[in-house]
């Protein structure tokens, strides 16, 4: 039911864009390399000295978003490369309290497209993505270990986890705005390089906390279930592996455009969005993984913009933190347990974009 809802949501989101017509022909882009980058900053600070009852508590928060792109075009070949880092931390209350993470996501993507026939929309494509985080994350979303924590080991860090996807595809690209990729044989791997993190189970022990293989004490049964060999064993003799290997089908829809040109032919609004659907042939193919990323830029002047970023994520193998009682005073930061749900991330930044 959740999957059907997400598919319908994606259809409504992309429908107007897919069928919209642009009367103006796009400008022919020059061949060779083009580069662009964007930097967004987020800062908030609040100091209270002898505050009134109910007035709040001290706060300091900072972070931002960095994006970089390098595109190459020559003849029938087009190669697009993108890097993005979203990072933010905050501290609430006394200065002795630890800093907590607000967001931490490192993403790399590379997409190569070679048209079968010049001036025709169909082509051969290869899409690669890498997703991880930059810094360690301890219990309570803190950046470092604090006395009283249940474990001295982080719950996640760089390359633990990391998701790598390789998708050879057939592409449909009717113009510079829209791309549709269909891959019948995509490889997707979740990697948890740190043994102590790979050995942490989900709440229902159906997999590792980040979706890697976990469970049981029989080696042959483990291999039969997960398709990979176990790489370690917990103190309770439960087997786990540092990576999962998935083979399935991927469909990816990408759309980017700029609207409302002024007298100087500068846009007022920019939209970039991508929807990725993945089904694993080898393990519960009816469960479709969903990742939908959207960036909307409202340009103010000379590259300065207000940027709204959203990420919608669902993976049946990766459980997320849940607040089951709507009570922020119980559990870790209000989250009592984990479960399978749609995860939504939203951020609003002031960003400066530039070409070079």
Automatic annotation (TrEMBL):
<keyword id="KW-0732">Signal</keyword>
<protein>
    <recommendedName>
        <fullName>DUF3078 domain-containing protein</fullName>
    </recommendedName>
</protein>
<dbReference type="InterPro" id="IPR021428">
    <property type="entry name" value="DUF3078"/>
</dbReference>
<feature type="signal peptide">
    <location>
        <begin position="1"/>
        <end position="20"/>
    </location>
</feature>
<dbReference type="Pfam" id="PF11276">
    <property type="entry name" value="DUF3078"/>
</dbReference>
